[in-house]
């Protein structure tokens, strides 16, 4: 199936909404259509993009309206469009619900509009998105661990695997279609960013996907994938965990470690500068007193890594 913008049916009544190129903010979403009702997996980073997606889905859900939304995690590119889902039940893990209010749309709007170097930096990453006027719609139902719901005769299983990418990542399984929507447990063609960690939890989430009876794997970013794509993400995380731990043990500073690690085959992945955040997360996992830099510094470091020859 081609990696192109729009709605793609991957199995009967199972759709992926893809947004190339899958880089910062260009997330995927999903749709499960049952008998007379549908479930939406994630909204998009702003209202314009979310409305475009809903318009594309309109013919498919004409006889099966979207009554339920699942947010796989708290990053804005997976939930800022929630306000357009008026009347729908919004389900997320408890940890995701708590984390959602930490980075309100107004904060990103302010960073994008900031003067000088900070504004230039954030417009480099997020300048194509419109954060003004977004009102965050929080989950109306939360769960911990596992949660099962029915969508017009179809069982949908939510499995919490965070903290990993964020505090409360959730996988969404549709067993009758052998499908999983992974949220940002999978970035395909791009580099994972481990905001929270530990990396071991994310590695375990990859193992869970590989052990599951799934043929269709829809990532949070990038093209549709298979279990080989999951293994590649797992291999990256294990590599970073090992390389960062080695440098931590030798007493090297986290930022120095990120600049010292040679990504080798992983350097061809998009957004490879995310290594700076990932190494810092390993250090924080190994030393609870380790203080991570503020978000502006983290983005500066990611940008700096990507400007170097590799």
UniProtKB/TrEMBL annotation:
<dbReference type="InterPro" id="IPR050855">
    <property type="entry name" value="NDM-1-like"/>
</dbReference>
<feature type="domain" description="Metallo-beta-lactamase">
    <location>
        <begin position="26"/>
        <end position="221"/>
    </location>
</feature>
<dbReference type="Pfam" id="PF00753">
    <property type="entry name" value="Lactamase_B"/>
</dbReference>
<protein>
    <submittedName>
        <fullName>Unannotated protein</fullName>
    </submittedName>
</protein>
<dbReference type="InterPro" id="IPR036866">
    <property type="entry name" value="RibonucZ/Hydroxyglut_hydro"/>
</dbReference>
<dbReference type="InterPro" id="IPR001279">
    <property type="entry name" value="Metallo-B-lactamas"/>
</dbReference>
């Amino acid at each position: 199936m081609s990696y192109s913008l729009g709605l793609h049916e991957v199995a009967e009544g199972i759709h992926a909404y893809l947004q190339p190129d899958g880089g910062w903010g260009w997330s995927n979403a999903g749709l499960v259509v049952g008998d007379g009702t549908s479930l939406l997996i994630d909204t998009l980073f702003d209202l314009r993009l979310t409305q475009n997606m809903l318009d594309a889905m309109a013919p498919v859900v004409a006889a099966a309206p979207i009554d339920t939304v699942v947010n796989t995690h708290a990053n804005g590119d997976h939930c800022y469009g929630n306000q357009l889902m008026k009347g729908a039940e919004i389900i997320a893990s408890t940890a995701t619900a708590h984390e959602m209010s930490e980075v309100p749309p107004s904060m990103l709007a302010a960073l994008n509009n900031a003067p000088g170097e900070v504004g230039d930096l954030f417009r480099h990453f997020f300048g194509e998105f419109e954060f003004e006027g977004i009102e965050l719609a929080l989950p109306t139902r939360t769960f911990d661990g596992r949660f099962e719901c029915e969508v017009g005769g179809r069982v949908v299983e939510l499995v919490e695997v965070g903290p990993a990418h964020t505090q409360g990542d959730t996988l969404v399984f549709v067993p009758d279609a052998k499908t999983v929507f992974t949220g940002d447990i999978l970035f395909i063609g791009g580099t994972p960013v481990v905001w929270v960690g530990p990396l071991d939890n994310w590695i375990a989430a990859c193992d869970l996907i590989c052990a599951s009876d799934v043929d269709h794997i829809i990532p949070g970013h990038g093209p549709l994938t298979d279990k080989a794509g999951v293994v590649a993400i797992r291999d990256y995380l294990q590599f970073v965990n090992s390389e960062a731990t080695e440098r931590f043990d030798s007493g090297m500073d986290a930022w120095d470690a990120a600049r010292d690690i040679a990504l080798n085959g992983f350097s061809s992945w998009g957004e490879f500068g995310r290594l700076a955040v990932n190494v810092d997360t390993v250090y924080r996992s190994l030393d609870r007193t380790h203080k991570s830099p503020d978000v502006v510094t983290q983005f500066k470091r990611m940008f700096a890594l990507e400007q170097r020859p590799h």
